[in-house]
C-alpha cells in the first residue's frame, strides 16, 4: 500500500498530509508527512511546479538519498545521489525525517536593477525536509525549473563542510554543451568555450564550471547551475564515460602564492570545502527546464538568490560606459598625445557627456604597477581633478584594479576612493571561486555599497545571485567576450548566439560589445592594438538588446563612434535595464530574436551565427495602435564588408510582421515607438 502511494506521489496524486487506509474493515486515518513511503521501498518527498510539468523528488532510505528530476512525466535525472558532510559526519545518512512542510508561494518581485523585467512573478511550490541531527533539504519547483539546497540547523557557532556529494545522473545519453574553461585547474577566468557532445564523451575533459546546458532533444533543455554561492565554493562538473556527471568543488585554500602582480595561485588546498557558520542555508543546485525561449526569459536564478541587503538602493544608477582598454586609447585628430593621461580621459568624459553616457572607465595604467601601489596614481593623472571634471559634466569615473591590489589596500582604498569621489570599481583577476574568493566578492560588494559605489567583476566566477543580494554589482564578465578579438578568433558569431542560452541564464553578462570595425570570417585576424569584431555592425548593435548587462560598455574609440553617427544614434537611445522581455524567435546556438520594452518603447535585437537567415517576426507583442520602427540592418554588402549597415524607418502595426534578413554573422536592431496621431 505504501509503495503504491509512493507511485501516486510521483504522479502528483498524493499531495496532502493525510492518507486513509483500511485496517480490519475499518477506516483509519493516519496523519503522515506528504510523500512518505515505508522504509522497505524508501521514503519519497517531492514537489511539483504550479503548472505540474516539472517535478523534483527526493528518495531517502537507510542506504542512500537520491534526487530525480521530471519534465512532463519523463524522468530526466534519475536517482542521483546527494549528501553533505559536516564536521566529519555525512548527512543525511540513516537519519530519520522529523518533518516535511509544504508551501505555495505566488508573489511579485520588483528588482532594484531590472534585466528580464521590472516586475517578476515569483511563483513556486516548496517543500522543506528536516532530518534528525540538524540537517535538511529545501526543494522548490517553478514552471521553468526546479532547485534544491541543503540547510544546516547546527547549534555550533562554526562548522566545517568536508564534502558535498552531487551528481547529474541522466536517464539517457543526452548531449551537453560542455564548458572548456581557460586556465589551469580551478584557476580560471571562466571564459569558456563549449564542446557539443554526448555526456558519455566528456570523460577526457577537465572539470568545467557551471552553468552547463544539456540538450534533451526536440527543443527541450536542462541548464544546471548554482545560486547563492556565499561562504562556500562554486560548482564545477567533471566529465564521464557514461551518463553520470559528478560535482566537484575547489577546496579551501591552505596556502597561496602571488604569481606576477595579479594572480594569487593556490598552491595547497585543505581537505575540506568551507569553514562557515552553523545555522545557514547552502547554495541552490538549480535546473532550468524548458525550450530555447525559456532559457532566454527565465528569472529563476535571480529569484532564488537572497534578497537585497542595501536598505536604500536609490543611489544605484545603471548605465552605459565609455571604455578605454579594448580600443587601446586610440583617439586621434587631437592636439595632445593620446595615452593614460589627463587630456585623454577628459576627451572620453566629453564624449560620454555629449552622448548621455553616465560613466567612463579608467582601466589598467592609472596607478603605479604592483598590488602595494594601488593608491599611487601615475604622475600623468590628477585623480581628484579628473573626477571633479567628470562630475561637472555628469559623468562618473569607474576605476579598474586587480582583486589582489584591492585586498592588499582594502580599507585605505575605499576611504581614498570616496575622497576622490569615484562612482565605481571594476575588480579584475579573481580567477577563483573557492570559499575565500567568494567571501571576497561579497565583502567587496558590501564595502562598495557602504561607500555608494557600483561594481563590475571581471576575470572570475559567473553570477550566482550576488547581483540581487548586492544590487550595486551591476555586471560580471566570466564570458568569452569581445576582448578575445584582440588575440584570437573565439569571439565570433557562433559563440555570440550560444552565450545567451548558457552563460547569460546565470545573470548579467559583461560581453563589452560596440565594435565599429567589423569583419567577416575570411577577413579577420586578431590585432591587440587595432581590434575589430567578427560579424557585422548590425550584430554588434543587436547585442545591446540581446545581452543583459545593466553596466553596458561602448568598447570602441570615441573617434570611431563619431565617424559612424548612424550607429551612435542607436547606442545613445538603447537602455541598459528593461521592463519586459519577449522572445520572438530562438534556436540554441543558431539565432536569437528578442524584444525588450522600456517604458512604452520596444527594442528588438536579432543575431545569427555564420548562416544567412530570413526570419519573419509577428509584431503582436506591440498591441493595438500604430507605430514607427527605426531599424539598423545588414547592408547589401555586409557579407563582404561587415561594417555595411543601413538605417531605415517604417510604419508598423501590432497586426503586422517584420522580415529580418541577416547575412552570415549578421544582425538586426530596431526601436519601435508608438505614433501619436495629430
Provide a descriptive summary of the structure in words.
The chain is an alpha+beta fold. It is 17% helix and 40% strand. It has 14 helices and 39 strands. It has an 18-stranded antiparallel β-sheet that branches. The protein has a seven-stranded parallel β-sheet with strand order 28-27-26-25-24-23-31. A six-stranded antiparallel β-sheet has the order 32-33-34-39-36-37. Strand 4 and strand 5 form a beta hairpin. The N terminus is likely disordered.
Number of strands: 39
Count the DSSP helices: 14
* Proportion in β-strands: 35-45%
Give a short account of the largest sheet: 18 strands, antiparallel
Proportion in helices: 10-25%
What general form does the structure show?
globular
Helix/strand class: alpha+beta
**Beginning-to-end CA distance, first to last residue:** 73 Å
**Unreliable runs:** 1-40
- Overall mean confidence score, pLDDT: 93
Rg calculated over all Cα atoms: 26 Å
